[in-house]
Every structure is written in structure tokens, then in C-alpha cells.
Amino acid sequence: MKRTKLFTLVAAMMAMIIAPTVQAQPGGQRPGGGRPGGGSFGRGGPSTISVSQLLQSEKVRNEAEIFDEQVQELREASEKIRTEARANQGERVDPRTLTEAQRREYFEKRRKEFEATQKKVDAAVKDILLPHQLERLEEIRLQLLGARALQLEPVQKELKVTDAQKTKLDEIDNGTRAKAQEMFGGIREQFQQLGGDGEKIRALMEEMQKKMQAVQKEAEEKMVNTLTDEQKQKFKEMKGKPFEISREDLRPPRPQGQRPPGQRPPGQPGQRPAQ
User: Fold this and answer.
1) Does residue 74 surpass a pLDDT of 60?
2) Torsion angle, alpha carbons of 223, 224, 228, 232, to 10
3) What is the three-state SS of 155-221?
């Protein structure tokens, strides 16, 4: 495994901890829009999970008892909304040709366009799915978000989270991200010092992963402990029956024979040798 790929994996794991926690917006998307993720039913920010993303998983659809006819209807509605949104965007601009002020204005415009599109997709999902299906999807979403769901406005409203508790949750989140950034500030230099020693690199990866898991676990425990016993019980009920699934399971299946993004066809220069 190449060092660059290993570093990318570490950076991705770090992002789970140091990325700003989601705030209250329809569909759970992040303020600022984030970089949209792809999907058949819509798009969601990288720091959260939307109902649209959950619908990518056949396992989730089966759990929520969603019919094939609904899946097809959702795909068609989402594609229509996205096609109309692209048609209304006008000519795309290369941000590198803009001034700093123009870039801010351009990205703010794109953020608002993305949010408007997502709201339409969310509305379509609610129109097509039945109440019990939506309820189960929301329960699964809260399970995947874990304690970070406590910073979502609808969850805080349901739990009657006080202003003092909200402040404490923000302090825990900020402290956790600062701790993670400090912990992994020299990760790139550590990889460079190891050269191409695969065994040492794997050992470093395992060490980093354990540290990140410990930091994340500590943060989640602190967040949950900001709640009263009554709120903890209510939060548990909101998550419903336990459902085993990971974020990896939410990735849409790649069509058979399609190469992962960025991978070159066999025989072309620059392809990583088979392991």
C-alpha cells in the first residue's frame, strides 16, 4: 500500500473527529453546504447522514419496508429535481479566475442552490414514503449519528435540551476537535520518516486508529452525560430498535465492471500494482 494512500486513510479517519459537528438544518446537512456527496436519491454533507443517503442501502430499505415501486419513484423524482437545478445554475465559473470577494459570493450562491435542491429532494422523500417508513429511517439515522445527533436542532427540541446543555455540547465538540488536531498535527512528518517500511506504517495506522477511537468514545460519553436521566431514556427511545449497519454500508453499489474513481485501466502507466 502506498504511503499517500495510507495518509489519505488516516486523514479520512481524522475527519470523523475533527470535522465540525452538524447543525440544525433540514435533512441534517451542514452549514456552508459542504462538498455534496453523490447519490441516486439526493445528496448529503460529509459530516452527517441524510434520509436520502440511507435510501442508498438495500439493507436499510428492507428494514424500513420500502417497496421497489417507491424506490423507482424516488429515483425519478430526485433526478428530475437535480436536472432542473442544473439547468437553472447558469454558466459554471472557474473560481481561480475570481477575486476573493467574488469567490465568497460565488460559493455562497452555490451553497444556497444546493440547500434549495436538497429541500426539494427531502420534500419528495416525505411525499413518497409512508409515515412508518420515515419513522424507521429517522431511527436508523440517529443510531448512525450517535451522540453527535444531540447537536441537531430537531433532536434538541424533542429532548428539551437547555441553553446551558447546548453550550456544554459545543464546548465538548470544540475541545475534541482541538485535541484531535493537536494529536495528529505531525502525522505527515511521521509517515515521511518511516520511508517505505510497510510494517511500520501499518503499525502507525493501527496506533492512530486506536487513539482516534478513544478520543471519539470519550467525546460521545461526555455528550450523553450532559443529558438528564429522563433525556437519556427519551434519546434511547428515539433511536428505536437497534439496527446493525455501518457508514460503509451506505455507499451506493458500483455498477459491475466500473472502476473506482481515479483508477486507470490495466496496463496504463501509474496504476498501483495488484496486492
Assistant:
1) yes
2) 150
3) HHHHHCCCHHHHHHHHHHHHHHHHHHHHHCCCHHHHHHHHCCCHHHHHHHHHHHHHHHHHHHHHHHH
> What is the rounded distance in angstroms from the CA atom of residue 218 to the CA atom of residue 173?
11
Summarize pLDDT for 199-247 with one digit per residue, the tens. Answer: 877 887 788 888 888 888 899 999 999 999 999 999 999 999 999 987 6
CA atoms lying within 13 Å on the CB side of residue 90: 6
**Residue type at 147 in one-letter notation:** A
Tell me which DSSP letter residue 24 carries. S
Residue 246 host element (H or E):
none
Rounded to 5°, the CA angle 25-28-32 comes to 60
Mean pLDDT, range 29-46, rounded to an integer: 36
pLDDT, one tens digit per residue, over 117-131 is 888 988 999 999 999
Q: Cα–Cα distances in Å, from 184 out to 14, 46, 190, 194, 198?
A: 8, 20, 10, 16, 20
257 φψ region: left (φ > 0), alpha (ψ -120 to 50), beta (else)? left
Contact assessment for residue 42 and residue 121, using Cβ atoms and an 8 Å cutoff: yes
pLDDT (0 to 100) of residue 176: 86
The number of residues in the chain equals 275
Which residue matches cell numbers 427540541? 157
DSSP state of 129: S
Q: Report yes or no: 88 and 49 within 8 Å, Cβ to Cβ.
A: no
